[in-house]
Design goal:
Blueprint lengths: L7 H9 L9 H16 L11 H34 L13 H4 L2
Length: 105
């Protein structure tokens, strides 16, 4: 059973009402109870959108990757412009078509 799919009231009920178990089932019962405690303490349930440090870390890493890709694209654009300036050729735009012969100078 996935405890995080339970409602807030179900988690609260499981937290306050400890389960009874046989001696041979102690390990599994303690795992169940520990997950219930964590769900109760961090307010994890089916009706809650998680806002944790991990989510924030994932968001920061994603934004860092996007910024890095934008930075690389800007560097490539500048390098392309510098290459055309070095060759004393006009920078290709929509108005100045570039032929294959111009590239093989």
């Amino acid at each position: 059973m996935w405890l995080v799919n339970l409602s807030e009231k179900d988690i609260e009920c499981l937290y306050y009402n400890r389960i009874c178990y046989d001696v041979q089932d102690k390990v599994q019962a303690m795992q169940f109870q520990n997950v219930t405690r964590i769900c109760y303490a961090y307010d994890i349930n089916s009706g809650k959108m998680w806002e944790t440090k991990w989510r924030e870390l994932e968001r920061k890493e994603f934004l860092r990757d996007v910024k890095n890709e934008e930075r690389i694209a800007a560097i490539m654009t500048k390098a392309s412009i510098r290459r055309f300036q070095f060759m004393n050729k006009p920078i290709p735009t929509d108005k100045i078509p570039m032929s294959y012969a111009e590239l093989n100078c």
